[in-house]
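Kindly go through the following sequence and its backbone structure tokens. Advise at your convenience whether the structure tokens fit the sequence:

___
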Amino acid sequence: MKITKSQLKSIVKNLMEEGTEFDYMLLSRLQQDNEYYLNAGSRSPKVLWANDEVDQIEKMKELYNKLDKKPDWISMDDIEEYERQMVTNLDEDYTEESNYSSNNIPQVNELNKNRNLVADLGDGFVVTIIKIADDKFFVTVYEDDKVVHTETHNSANSAYAEYEKIRGEIASW
């Protein structure tokens, strides 16, 4: 059974009404997409949840404003910085090279200090690790700009172990 875009929007709307946990998760997912878009995603809107830079930022603002308890891993200033980088410069040619590669993903102790990490594993695979709280990390795997795997981890060690597992699996292909 194929789900239409309107059916998917209806499902998402129903999930969003069920509680704020989904809002936090979706906001984190949008942040991950932004990091990928700005770094390894070649600034392609098709890697964004909303498939459009303006809609993506608007959804982030909507979610953030809807939350009674604001997350400590993203602020409105952060969202506005994403807006500046993604929307304000839409007409400019993007020439900045990504600083990320599979050779420079941080070790676990660095992962505890930072929030947004991107590793380009080659062959179209990219892994992001987003720290959303002291004990919560989201690991997302992209293949050719599509999300193929997302997992939540309760420690930096667990998130990094997942990254190592994924990197090993991809290298063995």
Observations:
- The two ends are 30 Å apart (CA to CA).
